[in-house]
């Protein structure tokens, strides 16, 4: 289920603007990797380049290699929709489809993949909602609008929707930044549980969160506005937060900059 | 100051009601004597002789023609309009989409009499040729049957109507499609949707109530359209599904064509026909609202 991600010298551009410069990192299967750093340092750009979502913006392009179990996802013969099915994504703000019920939201991805059989969809919906720790709260109102749930429930619904298509990797782009502390804890608990099946990469502004949930942490930074983001340090989370090798990392995690 | 403004706005609000009631009273008071003088059944009789000594008139053929031309116009216009709207909102590059959208809005600004004259004098010729072709190969379908002459027909009127309805439906739908939240589009793409699948999953369902409203506005324009149909329909009082033979008439076109030589009873009869048109439009609008209302729960929670 889970796969290794290997980035080598990945640079990303929007038009002539270089957003990230030459990022190299390896993410092991069934681990949680946190990407931290000040705003505008390119961590979200890097995350979105892993499932090629950055291409949604016009004039975006990338240099370097990004492989998932030795398959370069930027090879010309790779189907971008297949990449995105393999690498799911949870966004900053909960984004359930507003016209769909809870149930329809969870199975939306499966329906896109051509699954039509009711029993298969029902099973997948129950399984995904249980995995997302949401089943007990919504099992009696699956036909109600997904957008009617609370923010934290919506975000877990989005996670259920993402894992319903059985991806190998789950990318999370600040998934808790719009949530209250209790909902945030619920999502963090969920991440520990999902780690058994998926490779997870999370972008977060919350350093305590990075320290709590992740196995490895990557610190991104920029010299000044307009410069491309760089990966300053990438190591075990414990090392980053106790004894970082780089002065910049230390300044950031102790709150002296950023 | 406070009470003065309150009184002013209340009066303005009440004025709307007063005007509507006054119009209704006027119309009904004119229509009732004519309906009483009618020697035929107003709802089922298919001809219009209200100026005779023994007035005979009925709305059946006119109402039928009104609804038929409007429905055909929508059947032709809506798929094209939605295609253009989606192209402009999600496929065309911005440099192309903005001028193209502007041109379509311009189409909505053309006065209907211009469409009518163009339809009668220019567009009639290709439609006539097309009708002959349809009749040659598809005359086994009753709607394309008959022996001619082909020309000022339901088809011509409906196609001109379709062109007039197209810009309304297009520009409103385009606006609705553009309002789809980017985060919903991204959610669909991140699930591995192709662009078309993303549009089907995120854009179209989100825009559906707005598109229905746009179609109903278009239908409202088609039902009430007067001069363009008066110039392009065959002005024949009958109920026939034959689209290409010379024929067709509508309530509004009939009012325009016959008001000039109508006597008191004739005018009353035309006002009665106007009330029927009003009733049809009202029913259509209420149906549209009911459709939009049914999914209200989903729309409101999305905000």
Give a verbal description of the structure:
Chain A: This is Phosphate import ATP-binding protein PstB. Chain A: It comes from Actinoplanes auranticolor. The complex is a heterodimer of chains A (258) and B (303). Chain A has ten helices and ten strands. Chain A is globular. In chain A, the strands form two sheets. Chain A has a six-stranded mixed β-sheet, with helices on both faces. In chain A, strands 2-1-4-5 form a four-stranded antiparallel β-sheet, covered by helices on one side. Chain A has 258 residues and is α/β, with parallel strands linked by helices. Chain A has a domain at 5-93 and 169-253: P-loop containing nucleotide triphosphate hydrolases (Rossmann fold), CATH 3.40.50.300. The model of chain A has no long low-confidence stretch (mean pLDDT 90). With 303 residues, chain B is an all-alpha fold. Chain B has a domain at 63-265: MetI-like fold (Orthogonal Bundle). Helices cover 75% and strands 1% of the residues of chain B. A two-stranded antiparallel sheet of chain B has the order 1-2. Chain B starts with a helix and ends with a helix. Chain A binds chain B through residues 51, 53, 56, 81-85, 88-89, 91, 93, 95-100, 108-109, 112-113, 145, 147-148, 158, 161-162, 165, and chain B through 181, 183-194, 197, 201-202, 205-206, 208, 295, 297-299, 301-302.
Count of alpha/pi helices of chain A: 10
Greatest chain-chain contact: A-B, 29 and 25 residues
The assembly state of the depicted protein chains is heterodimer
Second-tier CATH architecture of one domain in chain A: 3-Layer(aba) Sandwich
Spell out the helices and strands of chain A N to C: EEEHEEHEHHHHEHEHEEHH
Order of the strands making up the biggest sheet of chain B: 1-2
Query: How would you classify the helix and strand content of chain B by structural class?
Result: mainly alpha
**What is the helix content of chain A?**
25-40%
Task: Give the terminus-to-terminus CA distance of chain A.
Answer: 36 Å
- Any idea what the shape of chain B is? globular
Organism (chain A): Actinoplanes auranticolor
Protein name (chain A): Phosphate import ATP-binding protein PstB
Pfam family, one (chain A): ABC_tran
GO molecular function (chain A): ATP binding; ATP hydrolysis activity; phosphate transmembrane transporter activity
């Amino acid at each position: 289920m889970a796969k290794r991600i290997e980035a080598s010298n990945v640079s990303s551009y929007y038009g002539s603007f270089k957003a990230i410069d030459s990022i190299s990192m390896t993410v092991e299967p069934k681990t949680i990797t946190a990407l931290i750093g000040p705003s505008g340092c390119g961590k979200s750009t890097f995350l979105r380049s892993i499932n090629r979502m950055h291409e949604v913006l016009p004039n975006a392009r990338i240099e370097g290699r990004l492989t998932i179990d030795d398959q370069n996802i930027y090879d010309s013969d790779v189907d971008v929709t297949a990449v995105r099915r393999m690498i799911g994504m949870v966004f900053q703000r909960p984004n359930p489809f507003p016209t769909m019920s809870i149930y329809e939201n969870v199975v939306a991805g499966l329906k896109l993949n051509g699954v039509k059989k009711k029993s298969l969809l029902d099973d997948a919906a129950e399984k995904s909602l249980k995995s997302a720790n949401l089943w007990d709260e919504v099992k009696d109102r699956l036909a109600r609008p997904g957008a009617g749930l609370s923010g934290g429930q919506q975000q877990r619904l989005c996670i259920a929707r993402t894992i319903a298509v059985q991806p190998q990797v789950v990318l999370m782009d600040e998934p808790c930044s719009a949530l209250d502390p209790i909902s945030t804890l619920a999502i963090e608990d969920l991440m520990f549980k999902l780690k058994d099946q998926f490779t997870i990469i999370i972008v977060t502004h919350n350093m305590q969160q990075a320290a709590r949930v992740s196995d490895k942490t990557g610190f991104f930074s920029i010299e000044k506005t307009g410069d491309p983001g760089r990966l300053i340090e990438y190591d075990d989370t414990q090392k980053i937060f106790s004894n970082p090798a780089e002065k910049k990392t230390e300044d950031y995690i102790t709150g002296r900059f950023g | 100051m406070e009470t003065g403004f309150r009184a002013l706005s209340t009066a303005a609000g009440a004025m709307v009601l007063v005007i509507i009631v006054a119009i209704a009273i006027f119309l009904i008071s004119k229509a009732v004597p004519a309906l009483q003088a009618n020697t035929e059944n107003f709802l089922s009789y298919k001809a219009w002789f209200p100026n005779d000594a023994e007035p005979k008139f009925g709305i059946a053929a006119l109402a039928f023609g009104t609804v038929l031309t409007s429905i055909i116009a929508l059947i032709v216009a809506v798929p094209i309009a939605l295609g253009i709207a989606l192209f402009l909102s999600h496929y065309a590059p911005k440099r192309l989409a903005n001028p193209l959208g502007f041109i379509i809005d311009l189409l909505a600004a053309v006065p209907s009499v211009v469409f009518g004259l163009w339809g009668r004098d220019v567009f009639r010729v290709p439609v006539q040729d097309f009708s002959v072709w349809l009749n040659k190969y598809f005359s086994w379908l009753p709607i394309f049957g008959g022996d001619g002459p082909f020309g000022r027909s339901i088809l011509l009127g409906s196609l001109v109507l379709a062109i007039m309805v197209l810009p309304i439906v297009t520009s409103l739908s385009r606006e609705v499609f553009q309002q789809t939240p980017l985060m919903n589009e991204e959610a669909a793409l991140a699930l591995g949707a192709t662009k078309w699948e993303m549009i089907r999953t995120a854009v179209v369902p989100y825009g559906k109530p707005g598109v229905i409203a746009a179609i109903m506005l278009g239908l409202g324009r088609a039902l009430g359209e007067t001069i363009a149909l008066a110039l392009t329909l065959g002005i024949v009082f009958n109920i026939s599904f034959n689209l290409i033979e010379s024929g067709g008439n509508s309530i509004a076109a009939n009012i325009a064509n016959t008001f000039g030589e109508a006597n008191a009873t004739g005018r009353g009869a035309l006002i009665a026909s106007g009330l029927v048109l009003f009733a049809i439009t009202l029913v259509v609008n209420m149906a549209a609202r009911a459709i939009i209302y049914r999914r209200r729960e989903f729309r409101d929670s999305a905000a």
